[in-house]
Fold:
Amino acid sequence: MQHFTSVKDAYNIDKLVNEALLMKKMPYADKHLGKNKTMGLLFFNSSLRTRLSTQKAAQNLGMDVMVMNVGADSWQLEMNEGVIMNGDKAEHVSEAAAVIGQYCDIVGVRSFPGLVDREYDYSELVLKQFMKFTGKPIVSLESATRHPLQSLTDLITITEYKTVERPKVVLTWAPHVKALPQCVPNSFAEWMNIANVDFTIAHPKGYELAPEFSGNAKICYDPKEAFEGADFIYAKNWSSYEDYGKILSSDPAWTVSEEKMKLTNNAKFMHCLPVRRNVVVDDAVIDSANSIVVQQAGNRVWAAQTVLKEILLTQM
Ligand code: CP
Structure:
């Protein structure tokens, strides 16, 4: 594995999931692989799970880890090439990324979309510039359009908890007070579309994901219908792709409630976290025995560790 920025870098998702589940049983079996190697974690945005789980994963593989909040701890970076840098950006990504590449063997980057200019966000400029100038493998810690470490985690978790060979998995939009990116649903859809699951995406009209992500998923516009017979309910808010970055609905009928969960096949409840209680999901659901959000977050370590191991093996 050279980089890890989307499902396309995974090659064989079943192999990755099996490897992760094995790693979960023997977390330190590969501690020699990262000896004298350094992982750099660059955050343009806040994080709890991605930051801690990736650091733990790298440490489990014997790597040293350096973490930086870009912009807050370092200089503001200019991403565009050929510009006259007479504004507030003190350093160009071409030097910054190249210098980071001198210190690190693998570099993780988190950079959210601005949700103003769809073309700019979907061009993934920040990720592409780091891939261009760092000269080292780049791992997406959530980019403008995808969150692949989260999606691998989600598939690991579904594989662990499924009770039928081909479960019905429902990605359901839920209300939120802020306009959120499409990264998690885009990425989840991209992975579920090639996994052995019966996949439905449910959302109000106007919240269609880009067709390259929704793929062949069944689309449902009814907040209850999609839940019928579901084995997994994966809740997430996202802002509109079509009316880019806008909130079009705050209809509480889309909140995940006990009443809707009763329509399912005793479904497990999943969410990538952080989650707004009683907006996205009712307390009664997230506090129920069917909620696996904490176990899901725990699996972030094994997803990250599997990806880092694959990259370290490529470097040998
Ligand atoms: N799910 C997730 O990426 O969590 P953080 O934003 O806390 O890293």
